[in-house]
Amino acid sequence: MEFEAVIGLEIHAQISTKTKMFCRCDNDSFDKEPNINICPVCSGFPGQLPVVNEEAVHKGVKAALALNCVIPEYSKFDRKNYFYPDNPQGFQISQYDEPISKDGFVDIDMEEGRVMKVRITRLHLEDDAGKLMHVRNGSLVDFNRSGTPLMEIVSEPDLRNAKEAAVYAREIQKILRYVGSSEADMEKGMMRFDASVSVREKGQDILNPRAEIKNLNSFKSLEAAIEYEIERQIEAYSEGNPLKSPVTVGWDDEKKITYFMRDKEESDDYRYFPEPDIPPLYMSSEMLEKFRNEIPELPSVKQKKYVDEFGLSPQDAKILAEDSKVAEYFEKVVELSKDAKKAVSFITTVLMKHLNEDYATIDNQKVSAEMLAELIALINSGEISNNTAKGEVFEEMYASGKSPKLIVDEKGLKQVSDTSAIESICKQVIEANPGPVADIKAGQEKAIGFLVGMVMKESKGQANPQMVNDIIKKLLA
Ligand code: ZN
Ligand code: MN
Predict the structure, then answer these.
(1) Mind listing the pLDDT tens digit for each residue in 88-119?
(2) How far apart are the CA of 149 and the centre of ligand 1, in A?
(3) Per-residue confidence band for 421, with pLDDT thresholds at 50, 70 and 90
(4) b/e per residue 268-288 (b: at least 16 CB within 10 A)
(5) How far apart are CA 82 and CA 147, in angstroms?
(6) How far does the centroid of ligand 1 lie from the alpha carbon of residue 133, in Å?
(7) How far is residue 375's CA from residue 357's CA, in Å, rounded to a whole number?
(8) Cβ burial, residue 326 (10 Å; 0-12/13-18/19+)
(9) What would the pLDDT profile of 353-404 be if each residue is shown by its tens digit?
(10) DSSP characters for 201-246?
(11) What is the whole-number distance in angstroms between the Cα of residue 431 and the centre of ligand 2?
(12) Any idea which ligand is nearest the CA of 193?
């Protein structure tokens, strides 16, 4: 029997705001002492009134627009009731039946140019819970995270394997970063995944009961957990023991297995009702238009543009478009130098190699787009060779932040393009190498390379190699 997996993802991403979702506590608690960014609202004191953070709504809507979602005129918040010690209110404020956005999609690039559409059910806003720490003689709770603004992005069950799920998750991360709605830094817990997995016989059109794998916090564990769960379910199904009702499972990252946590709660279990302390959100068409205009050109669009307009390879286009800061830098260099080919070559091979070695980022290093464009201009005008530019000059620019012109002058790196100076070296070299000269005259063109090399050596690499080549040919003609 052949099986296929049916996978949907819920992605929680922290919205990058200054303050929390419903109070004015600082939203940045990374590496902070426990319980310092808290107030009566986010630590759940009775009778406190939540106030919606406008920045969180703004950034949530921007993300939703970038994910091609529809934004209804009205939306509202609801209480999702459940008890857990890290959730002092006894409920989470989320959005149930009228979220700020719905019905979107993203296109993802799979292997060999296969583009796949993944439908997005909704993106809604909610707040996060606190954090429990289990110690030897009890449990401690830290409410710094409580009230952190989140967007939850729910996909339709359109994914069929772990690879597709991972590519989709990375695409979402890229888009959230591009529009500035979330830093989506997995290491800081800013983005996490719940993956719903079920299997069915190939060719069937039904949705079997699923296992929801909770709280996956890296792309690696996302892929591994889905792969494991698919295998596990296929085996159970083949043994006549398929899932009979939905379950919630966890992922053990050390043993690399999923484990049963509980039967899955259905929405009835949460007793959703409209949050009485928050009025409905109204999105005017003017506001929506304003937000729409703030959406930058997205990576997939840039990637296509780089291939079509600048003649880049799809791989190079992808590397440059992936990070908005790199893309901005690249476009600036092209604008100034009018040489996309050299720009891509310097950025992807020379500059990125240094950045990787130094764990640096493009906006946190000394070679500005203006400097790189100037360097390219020096090559194109024949003042320095490509090798000198990529080697000595770039190294010095990167280390000191000096302009390439200044470096070329200081180090005397200018190519000699003075015909008479080159000609006299060529003559000496021809004189001193009768053997190769005879070979050339006998029709062995290859020997020219040897003579050019000798002239380059004599000139300490400063002669313009193309001119040397031409002059030797002329002298021996
Ligand atoms: Zn607070
Ligand atoms: Mn949620």
Answers:
(1) 899 999 999 999 999 999 999 898 778 999 99
(2) 11
(3) confident
(4) eebebeebeebeebebeeeee
(5) 15
(6) 20
(7) 22
(8) buried
(9) 999 999 999 999 999 999 999 999 999 988 888 888 998 899 999 999 999 9
(10) ETT-------EEEEEE-SHHHHHHHHHHHHHHHHHHHHTT----S-
(11) 82
(12) 2
**Protein residues within 5 Å, CB atom, of ion ligand 1:** 23, 25, 39, 41-42
Tell me what the mean pLDDT of segment 60-84 comes to.
97
pLDDT digits (tens, 9 = 90+) for 76-87: 999 999 999 999
Among 238, 177, 271, 160, CA closest to 1: 238
CA of 342 to the centre of ligand 2 (A): 46
Q: Count the residues in the chain.
A: 477
Mean pLDDT of 406-435: 85
Please tell me the distance from the alpha carbon of residue 241 to that of residue 17, in angstroms, as a whole number.
Answer: 47
Q: Cα-flanking dihedrals φ and ψ of residue 225, to 5°? A: -65, -40
Tokens representing 110?
Answer: 């799979």
Residue tagged 């039946």 (tokens): 97
Q: How far is the CA of 274 from the centre of ligand 1 (A)?
A: 21
Query: Please, are residues 162 and 223 in contact by the beta-carbon 8 Å criterion?
Result: yes
The answer to whether 422 and 471 are in contact (CB under 8 A) is yes
Task: Tell me the pTM.
Answer: 0.80
**Within 13 Å, how many C-alpha atoms sit on residue 128's CB side?**
27
pLDDT digits (tens, 9 = 90+) for 179-230: 999 999 999 999 999 999 999 999 899 999 999 999 999 999 999 999 999 9
- Nearest ligand, measured from the Cα of 93: 2
Are 93 and 129 in contact by the 8 Å Cβ rule? The answer is no
Nearest to 113 by CA among 326, 306, 318, 311: 318
Task: Provide the phi-psi class of 104: left if phi over 0, else alpha when psi is between -120 and 50, else beta.
Answer: beta
**pLDDT single digits (tens) 126-139:** 999 999 999 999 99
How is 68-95 classified by DSSP, letter by letter? T-B--SEE--EEEE---TT-TTSEEEE-
For residue 293, what pLDDT is reported?
95
For residue 100 the two structure tokens come to 């700020």
Q: Please give the pLDDT value at position 447.
A: 86
Task: Tell whether the model's pLDDT for residue 266 goes beyond 80.
Answer: no
Cα 85 to chain centroid, rounded: 34
- Angstrom distance (rounded) from CA 187 to CA 195: 19
